[in-house]
Amino acid sequence: MRLTTVGFFGLGFVLGARAGKERYEQIMEAARRSAEQLEAYGAGGTLARRLEGGGHDAGPPPRR
Length: 64
What we know:
Blueprint: H1 2-44, H2 46-52
C-alpha cells in the first residue's frame, strides 16, 4: 500500500507541475501582450501628441 501511495503522489506531482508550467506560460504571454499594448499606447497616445504639439493642450476639454 505504501508504494501505491508514493506512486500516486509522484504522478500527481508530475501532472501538477506540467499544468503549472503551462499556466505560467499563459500568464507570461498575457503580460507580454499587455506590455506591447501599453508601449504602443505610449508611443502614439494622447500624452505623446500633447508633448509633440508643444504642450498647448492643457488637458481634457472642460465638462459641460
